[in-house]
């Protein structure tokens, strides 16, 4: 059985993220890493591999050269192999183009199950999994707090606002999992060493038969017109509670703002 | 005048504030036509009409509730084919974004998610990177599909016909692939929905397991209750109330953070709140850099005192 885990290389959320002059995310200016939310996807794939024989977990990423680090992390956690799609033409691609390329990659990799994280921590749109499923015509069981696989049926529990849903789909299927699905394992020393020997293929748009003219900044269906840093917040008042002064200050604030 | 499709959802059987906000924004772009993907159109139409909906297109089909998301996207696409809208506005809920993503593929359209404003020229504003940057953007190709965050705008009444029409849709086999085999409804709390509430009172690690003071203050203010990841991970409050990168994002008029240190993952979920009050015993807590008013003190002293004072003033 082959499980494909889609992972994204993103700027560290604790670093100063910013925009480049062309309105794209400046990926060069901060350190990147495997998106935290994608670690949960890798973990769920590895849990299935732990329980069954003959499961191959392949980590796939779409990103510039540095994105190889995302694959590396997944391999260190225990994935068997990696696929890195890298092509300069992809710079500035929108969700439409990214999902087109990822769909072609899924088709080429031919897995039984695709597992994604719930959203990236940079773009944070949360739409790539369903857009891939839409393009491929695959069932999509997304935002799973739990994931289980029984023979040819994958099942998730999706905790929506008003109800918890149990969703099932037949393989081949695409699923996404949330941070509730189970703590992601830390790479062991053995895993870190073993990762160095695991195979990583590199694919370009040509390998996927995707026309470079249909992706990238100029082909995007949306356009960023302006990016503005939020002005630093004027420091608020901080007082130390003494003899009821704290509650009094809060109450005054509530009255002044007409919250009560 | 061109029409704008608004995908409305019901909250506990009623039209909620987010739907009215979408109508208000839709009116900037054209004449709003609401799509309601469940029963209840006749009851909802009056309110929808009061906020500008010229028509309410009702789609009732068992497939919409039996299979996850894909049938709803198909239904909206079929209604859009009949309406030929200038734009499609959807609420930025997890399901709303998935409907939007599938629609964008079906229609070959540009997609903008989590807009905090939609202007008359169709451009949008978004708050990104934990609220540190504001982005102005536009869809440049196809029928714009835009998801809008709750609390984007104050709903404005505008009298319109709100005429109900039934639309029949054909849901394909392809869309009937992720089966919803069980649905366990969650208990209603009687408090406002977290992402829609005007005031949120949230508790963190400092609550020490007892959310009583937070709940009492929330109820005194008619507010929603939220929780930090630390509190949820400790099992003190359900994940549905978690605010932050892996939980809900809120943008209320007032956010009161009790016993929350203010790590970046939490800030990502509340940084655009209009006003922030923080109570924490640690004067170094990062949350104080965000707060309009910070109280360094014991939340178990401060919160109940505020709650009592509010009750006293109401009496």
Outline of this structure?
The complex is a heterodimer of chains A (260) and B (315). With 260 residues, chain A is α/β, with parallel strands linked by helices. Chain A has six helices and 14 strands.
| Tally of separate domains of chain B | 2
Low-confidence segments of chain B, ≥5 residues, pLDDT <50? none
The span between the termini of chain A is 60 Å
What's the architecture of the largest domain in chain B, going by CATH?
A: 3-Layer(aba) Sandwich
Give the CATH level 1 class of chain A: Alpha Beta
Provide mean pLDDT of chain B, rounded. 95
Radius of gyration of chain B, in angstroms, nearest whole number: 21 Å
Range of helix content of chain A: 25-40%
Compute the average pLDDT of chain A: 95
- Number of helical segments with 4 or more residues of chain B: 10
What does the overall shape of chain B look like?
elongated
Assembly category: heterodimer
> How helix-rich are the residues of chain B, as a percent range?
25-40%
Order of helices and strands of chain B: EEEHEHEHHEHEEEEEEEEHEHEHEHEH
CATH topology of the largest domain in chain B: Rossmann fold
Strand order of the largest sheet of chain B: 7-11-6-1-4-5-12
What CATH first level of the largest domain in chain B would be assigned?
A: Alpha Beta
| CATH-defined architecture of chain A | 3-Layer(aba) Sandwich
Say what the CATH topology of chain A is. Rossmann fold
**What spatial order of strands do you see in the largest sheet of chain A?**
7-11-6-1-4-5-12
Low-confidence stretches of chain A: none
């Amino acid at each position: 059985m082959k499980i494909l885990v889609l992972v994204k290389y993103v700027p560290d959320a604790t670093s100063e993220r910013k925009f480049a002059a062309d309105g794209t995310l400046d990926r060069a200016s901060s350190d990147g890493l495997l998106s935290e939310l994608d670690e949960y996807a890798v973990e769920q794939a590895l849990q299935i591999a732990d329980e069954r024989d003959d499961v191959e977990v392949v980590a796939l990423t779409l990103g510039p050269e540095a994105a190889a680090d995302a694959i590396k992390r997944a391999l260190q956690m225990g994935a068997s192999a990696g696929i890195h799609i890298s092509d300069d033409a992809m710079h500035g691609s929108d969700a439409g183009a990214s999902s087109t390329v990822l769909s072609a990659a899924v088709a080429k990799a031919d897995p039984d199950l695709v597992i994604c994280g719930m959203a990236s921590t940079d773009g944070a749109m949360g739409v790539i999994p369903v857009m891939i499923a839409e393009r491929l015509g695959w069932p999509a069981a997304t935002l799973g707090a739990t994931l289980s696989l029984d023979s040819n049926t994958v099942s998730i529990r999706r905790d929506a606002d008003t109800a918890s849903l149990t969703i099932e789909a037949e393989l081949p299927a695409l699923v996404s999992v949330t941070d509730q699905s189970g703590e992601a394992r830390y790479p062991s020393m053995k895993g870190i060493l073993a990762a160095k020997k695991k195979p990583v293929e590199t694919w370009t748009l040509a390998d996927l038969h995707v026309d470079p003219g249909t992706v990238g900044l100029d082909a995007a269906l949306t356009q960023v017109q302006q990016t503005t840093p939020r002005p630093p917040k004027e420091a608020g008042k901080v007082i130390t509670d003494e003899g009821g002064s704290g509650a009094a200050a809060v109450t005054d604030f509530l009255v002044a703002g007409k919250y009560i | 005048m061109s029409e704008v499709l608004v995908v409305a959802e019901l909250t506990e059987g009623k039209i909620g504030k987010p739907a009215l906000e979408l109508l208000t924004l839709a009116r900037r772009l054209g004449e709003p036509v609401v799509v309601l993907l469940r029963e209840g159109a006749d009851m909802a139409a009056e309110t929808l009409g009061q906020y500008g909906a010229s028509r309410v297109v009702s789609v009732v089909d068992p497939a919409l509730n039996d299979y996850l998301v894909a049938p709803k996207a198909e239904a909206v696409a079929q209604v859009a084919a009949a309406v030929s809208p200038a734009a499609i506005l959807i609420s930025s809920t997890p399901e709303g974004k998935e409907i939007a993503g599938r629609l964008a593929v079906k229609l070959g359209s540009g997609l903008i998610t989590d807009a905090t404003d939609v202007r008359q020229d169709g451009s949008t504003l978004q708050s990104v990177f934990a609220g540190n940057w504001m982005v102005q953007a536009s869809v440049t190709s196809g029928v714009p599909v835009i998801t809008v965050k709750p609390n984007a705008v104050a709903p404005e009444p505008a009298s319109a016909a709100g005429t109900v029409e039934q639309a029949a849709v054909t849901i394909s086999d392809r869309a009937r692939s992720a089966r919803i085999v069980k649905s366990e409804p969650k208990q209603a709390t009687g408090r406002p929905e977290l992402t829609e509430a005007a005031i949120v009172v949230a508790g963190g690690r400092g609550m020490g397991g007892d959310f009583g003071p937070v709940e009492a203050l929330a109820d005194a203010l008619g507010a929603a209750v939220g929780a930090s990841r630390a509190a949820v991970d400790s099992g003190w409050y359900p994940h549905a109330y978690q605010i932050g990168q892996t939980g809900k994002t809120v943008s209320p008029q007032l956010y009161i953070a009790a016993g929350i240190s203010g790590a970046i993952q939490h800030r990502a979920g509340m940084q655009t709140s209009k006003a922030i009050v923080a109570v924490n015993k640690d004067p170094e807590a990062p949350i104080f850099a965000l707060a309009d008013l910070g109280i360094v003190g014991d939340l178990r002293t401060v919160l109940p005192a505020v709650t009592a004072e509010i009750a006293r003033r109401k009496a």
